[in-house]
Design goal:
124 residues; mainly beta; four-stranded mixed beta sheet; 8 strands
Length: 124
């Protein structure tokens, strides 16, 4: 059986978790988990992160309704990073965009390549 304590957490007891849409492969966001957040995610199927700014657990979609349901959790080879394959309901980003990675660097300039959902699209 998998034990979250076998992961390599940083000095703050956290591990980065990359959320990826299981169907499209789109990278949605990066957040942090502690051992308890990993266990809660595996137990409930609802992706649970540790909010560094609020110092509390954060069940994705609890307030926004933009839920992440766990499809599969993967570990990297060093056991110090997680890939969380999810079924994403609605936008993943708090800016109301599908992904948090909506800014590209092109010709050394920042370019917004995605508008918030419900607004006009930005040409990419």
């Amino acid at each position: 059986m998998f034990d979250p304590a076998t992961l390599r957490f940083d000095a703050n007891g956290l591990i980065p978790a990359i959320a990826q849409d299981h169907a499209s492969g789109e990278v949605l966001m990066l957040a942090w988990m502690n051992a308890e957040a990993v266990a809660r995610t595996l137990d409930t199927g609802r992706v649970t992160y540790w909010s560094r700014s609020r110092a509390s657990f954060w069940v994705k979609g609890e307030s926004s309704g933009h839920v992440q349901r766990l499809v599969e959790m993967r570990l990297d080879c060093d056991r110090d990073c997680l890939l969380v394959l999810v079924d994403q309901s609605g936008p993943a980003c708090h800016t109301n965009r599908r992904t948090c990675f909506y800014t590209a660097i092109r010709d050394r300039a920042e370019v917004e390549i995605m508008a918030p959902e419900g607004t006009a699209s930005t040409v990419s």
